[in-house]
Amino acid sequence: MQPAGGGATAQSHSLTAAQQWENVITDWYPRLEERAYFVPSVHFNRVHYDRQHVGGRHVPQTDHVPVLVPQLPVADRRPGDQSVSDSDIRDDRTTQRLLACLRALADRQNEVMFVLSQLDFGDYLGEPCYSAAANAFARPIDLKKKKKKKKTKTKEAEETEESLHEGDFDLLIFHREYGVLVGEVKIVGDNFSSLTLTQQQQDAIVVKKVEQAVKQLNKAEKVLTHILSDLQPPPRVRKSVMLPNLARSQLQRVLRNNLQLEQAVCQCMAIQSGVNPVDVCLCADNLSHTATPFDVTDDVMTELLQWWGHVMTGDGPDTSFKTHYRSVVARFAGPATTVQVFSVSKPRLHVHTEWEAVSETGRCFTQIVLHPVQLDVLHQDQPLVYLVGPPGTGKTLVLVLRAVKWLHDCHHVHIVSPLGEHSLAAAHMIDHQVRQMAGSLAQHMLHLHVTDVYKEDQWRTTVQDLVTRVDSRGRLFVIADESTFTDLR
Predict the structure, then answer these.
(1) What is the DSSP letter of 468?
(2) 223 confidence band (pLDDT: 50, 70, 90)
(3) pLDDT for 29-56, tens place per residue?
(4) β-strand 49-54 against 57-62: which pairing, if any?
(5) How many Å apart are CA 434 and CA 418, to the nearest integer?
(6) Alpha helices, H only, 53-180
(7) Spatial distance between the Cα atoms of 414 and 450, rounded to a whole number of angstroms
(8) Phi (first) and psi of residue 140, to 5 degrees
(9) Is 67 helix (H, G, I), strand (E, B) or coil?
(10) Strand runs (DSSP E) across 229-338, as ranges?
(11) In whole angstroms, what is the distance from residue 281 CA to residue 217 CA?
């Protein structure tokens, strides 16, 4: 039996947690009541890669030509193989385009809303360090426990209820004035032109995808109703099937030829009699062209606003949600909820705020792309290699990785600054990066030499010193940067 006052204690604890989360989002999203926020604020595309072993390090390599190598190692990340399918790549392109159009709508219409994309049910209030506080709130995992208590349902109903706690929200919009909109995105239609399919075959695929979308939207509504059940009155949950790559005309034809599916769509999205269900679905006609996804013209905006009016603003505002807006955002995008994005390294990154997204974007751009010819340089044992190319093409990184590889092969490595003080910064940077990547191997086996090839005495002294360091097989392992072939000839 629960002790007297136990419920009040739990409630006060949950309120304290909610207030703390609201304080956090005040710092994270300072203009929450004035503008739109998108979380993640940057969509990170998925990239397939395998691992190669270079210089004692696992280096991710893509299916095509580039190899991504962080300029500086990150201690808490370890790259792992990640498989990305063609549908994942198509999904990323579609998501980028959809979010770009919604962002343009929010900016031009001054919409005050919070947009979450690709949020797993399990990530809602799923941060382990907040588990004690999160237990006071309804969560998707609760729906799994409820399933066991009901024995009289059909097999299909039991399977649906059993999986209620598993899934994700493709798109979740919390609008300060109009309440909640959940969207289910299907990428059907973008590859029809490249496939030899009859119209009947195409329509059959569309039927299957729309059926899936309806089922997933109904599931998402049940999950949202459950986790927001403490809000009184409960917020209005709007739903929309989103088919960004499918023409409205094709969807219209499919629904007219399948009255059962049309009825399911109308029932799912609570479409009133006389309203065309296609108008409540988001189609390719409502969005920018696939070739120019970020070019949201006035014509595109007109089409997008027509859909927006049907799905969001047409029924009028949800006046009660305004009082819950901040607390709902604090739950779904505050510190207790995990907001994950794709990363070429493990663990997956958590990106709640715009500055975190900017930081990770910068990290992505500081990754160097190595092409096959550069990989060949790293794997071959040529007696003399001279790297030529414009700034920023990865020459120095190849030198660093080559030095690390030599150290792993138990060779002494000599870093030479050939132009005295003029090339000393580059030499020190190579020395620093090699020591970071090679660890203890560099302690006694990495040597830095400063000389000037235009001063004969200095250069002769350096050469004589290096000659004394030749190994038993007559080999010398030298790295030099910031020089020209004329300098060293």
Answers:
(1) T
(2) very high
(3) 999 999 999 998 877 777 655 555 555 5
(4) antiparallel
(5) 18
(6) 86-109, 131-134, 141-147, 155-162
(7) 10
(8) -55, -35
(9) strand
(10) 237-243, 282-283
(11) 12
**Are the beta carbons of 255 and 277 closer than 8 angstroms?**
yes
CB-side exposure of 108: number of CA atoms within 13 Å?
14
* pLDDT score at 366: 57
Tell me the pLDDT tens digit for each residue of 87-139: 778 888 999 999 999 999 999 999 999 999 999 999 999 998 898 899 889 99
Q: Which residue has the tokens 């560099």?
A: 442
Going by DSSP bridges, is the β-strand pair 282-283/340-341 parallel, antiparallel, or unpaired?
unpaired
Q: Which sign, positive or negative, has the C-alpha torsion 289, 292, 296, 298?
A: negative
Who wins on pLDDT, 42 or 19? Answer: 19
Name the CA radius of gyration of the chain, rounded: 29
What average pLDDT score do residues 197-212 get?
94
pLDDT at residue 149 tops 70: no
Place of tokens 């919070």: 114
Specify the 3-state DSSP secondary structure of 314: coil
DSSP for 259-272, written as a single string: HHHHHHHHHHTTPP
